[in-house]
Amino acid sequence: MAIGNLAVLGAQWGDEGKGKIVDLLSPSFAVVARSQGGHNAGHTVLVNDDQFVLHLIPSGILHPSVVCVVGNGAVIDIAALFKEIDELSERGIAVDGRLFVSDRAHVILPYHRDVEAAAEASLGANRIGTTSRGIGPSYEDKVGRRGFRVSDLADRRDGSRFAETLKINVERRNRALGDNSLDWRAVREEVNTYWPRLLPFVADTSKLLHEMMCTGRPILFEGAQGAMLDIDHGSYPYVTSSNATIGGVCTGLGIGPGAVDGVLGIAKAYTTRVGAGPFPTELQGELGDQLRQSGSEFGASTGRPRRCGWFDAVSLRYSVRVNGIEGLAITKLDILDQFSEIQICSSYRVGDDVLKDPPANIDLFSECQPVYETFRGWRGEGVTAGVRQEADLPTAARRYLDGVEELVGVPISIISTGSDRDDTIVREESFLTRWLASRS
To answer: For residues 240 and 149, what is the distance between their CA atoms, to the nearest angstrom?
Structure first.
């Protein structure tokens, strides 16, 4: 029986360790396809003490037999893409003939970055906390029908849609910022240098994926960010500009829902988020600093320190529901080795009300206080770091994982106990068995 296609999605506020899990699973698949987001999403993979940080290219690129796709739902900063390709090439990872970018993906241009930086600055204390890399404004132009898709870059002549719309967009930028520092012709010249090199990577990736499926080659669908940052289902307005949930896989790659045969959610053994917005389990002071330093919780793309807190089962249950998650991969369990007591948030309290789900209203969400269940830690009993057999985990660690499963409502399929590819426990009874059985 064919092993089918699997979606791997972030189930928290991003930064869950999707890169490692995708890298682990990639040998079971012919293709790894990314459906949304931009180069603000950093995926870190450690292979034999050699660290790779990928921003736009799927993590499957580290396996020479795997084809990688960046779908139409992503936004592409072409200069950043080339930089990533060059960095991989310098380290012996060839991408030619293995990397394809959708001809329908929208592109990020210099004025997108300018507009985003100015918009963030104007918000002052109410800023969202974006990376100011132009991702949001590029999606805004897409929805406003004034954006450019990769295929539009083929014709940059005077009178072309590209040239005429570019003039309008740059003029809009100059008015908004109150200066005339950007010339549309300079932007066009920049694009002129990109197109010849970009062309070999450009494809109708929806058709490519369809052909792969028709010939029985399985696909791993790789998400960026996490469910709580989804533009529709996340903690709006403190969210990303795309659909990081399962629906974004279909629209962002041009596949039907029936193409997804399973959904794996990725979550840390604790919780982090970057930028502003509600975070009920956030730990201030020494405990939060301890998690941040021990977990190296600094953005792979930006270096920004992440906010850290205890595991939030409320948001995880919500992610399970909106994504149809069948199993979880729990990462960074080893970071909890240092604690003698660990908390899991099982519900929220607002005044006299107890909430079992995250509220839609952002002001109400910001008022939520965590209701915790306390678990005994395993400090002094043993460590989980580097453990590769479930039976070797400390008893208290196994009880903690049982608590996560009970409170979230789905089984844990994978347990990550360190940064290295092999510091991983895959449960034999996991729903992933049919995929992992084919790993070479």
So the answer is: 20
